[in-house]
Each structure stands twice: as structure tokens, then as C-alpha cells.
Amino acid sequence: MFAIIDYGMGNVRSIYNAFTLLGKEVTITDDPKIIAESEAIILPGVGAFSDAMNNLTKKGLIEVLQNEIIVKKKPYLGICLGLELLAEQSHEGGMFPGLGWLKGEVVKIQSQQSAIKIPHIGWDDTKIIKNNTLFNEIVEPSYYYLHSYHLKLDPDEENIVTSICEYGGVEIVSSIHKENIFATQFHPEKSQETGLKLLQNFIEWVTQNVKK
User: Fold this and answer.
1) Mean pLDDT value across residues 30-50
2) Would you name the residues annotated as active-site residues?
3) Plot region of 168 (φ>0 → left; ψ -120 to 50 → alpha; else → beta)
4) 2-209: in CATH 2.30.30.140
């Protein structure tokens, strides 16, 4: 069973529906016990970085996430905010600390092209730059994006980037993979067949790599 973390940020039901369609048992929860018993953890989210961290803290979820993902190396899939929260800090609305699992920060998309609208909303081509299990049998994908901020990694972390997207002349980190941690800036659950294939690849990776 996969645990989709319910912390009041965004519509988790669409992610639940996507995994259910793929035949995977999932539950939407904020119960640390259920999270600890799960095979893998999904952290979605749309909204403000500071609100997300506050909600995770208020629900007492930081400790269980740290223990399960960083200490025990349980598979993790972050989506949108679930990618950005991995950073050390965010500049959204001030300066706020993140989970600090990746070296880097979250910054606003700063395009020099006046016609470019922020937030970045809609379908966009995504360039795969590193062979990665999430993109198995996926070629030249287009995914659905919805964000105004993006992850800017420190140089020594750039090797974890698996795909990028260019928006208004700005290179966006679209996905990363570091050990048991996978995360995407785009929304696979809203990206039709190509998104479902990515989620299916994550399910298969967990099946192959998690001891029963």
C-alpha cells in the first residue's frame, strides 16, 4: 500500500484516482502509523511553500517523513510542491526553510520575455536528460505544469536532475532522482497516458526494490 500524504495542500484525490486506475492500493492519510507501514510515500501539493511546511509541522509529519524516507530509505515520490519542499529554503513570500533533503533553494521563475506569463500553467515539452526508471519507455514527453517557483540546485546536486523544461528562456528542473527519492515539478496525475506511464514505472520500481 502507498500512502498519499494529506496535509491540506492541493487535490490529492486526482493522484489517488490515478494510482487506483493503475491497480495499485493507495490510501490518503495524515496518520504517522499508516505512513510508517506503507510501501512508499507520495507527497503532492499545490500552493504556498510556507503554508505547506507549516501544515506538515502542525500535523506532526516532519519526523515520520524524515525517519521513513531519509533514515529507512522508503521510496518517495514528490509532485510539484512535493519536489520544492525537498530544498533547503524557499524565497516564496520571504525566506522559509524546507525539508533540507536536497542542497538548493526554490526561486521565482524570472523570465526576460515580457509575453511570458507567470505562473507557468499548462502542457510543456519535457526533455529527458538522464536515463531514469520513471521515464522507462517514455520518449519526448509533454507534461502538465502549474507553478510560479522552481528548484535551483547547488552545482554538486545537479547530477540528480533527470529532466528539464524551458519556459520563457528559464531552465526548469522538471524531475530529480536521488537514491530512493523521486520528484517531479509537473503533474503526472494530470498528464494523461504519459503521466500514467510514469506512475506505473514508479510502482514497478518500488515492487522491484522494496523488500516485503
Assistant:
1) 96
2) 80, 187, 189
3) left
4) no
- pLDDT confidence of residue 167: 95
Q: Cell numbers 515520520 label which residue?
A: 64
Output the CA torsion 117→121→123→125 (10° steps).
Answer: 60
Please give the Cα distance from 96 to 202 (Å, whole number). Answer: 30
The x, y and z cell numbers of residue 150, run together, are 522552481
Cα–Cα separations (whole angstroms), residue 106 to 50, 65, 92: 11, 20, 7
Residue 212 is predicted with a pLDDT of: 60
The answer, yes or no, to whether the previous bond of 119 is cis (omega within 30 of 0) is yes
pLDDT at 114: 81
Give percent above pLDDT 70 in the chain: 100
pLDDT of 211 strictly over 80: no
Alpha-carbon span 172 to 163, nearest angstrom: 9
- State the angle between helix axes of 192-209 and 13-21 in degrees (0 to 180), rounded to the nearest 10: 70
- Cα 174–118–148 angle (5° rounding)? 45
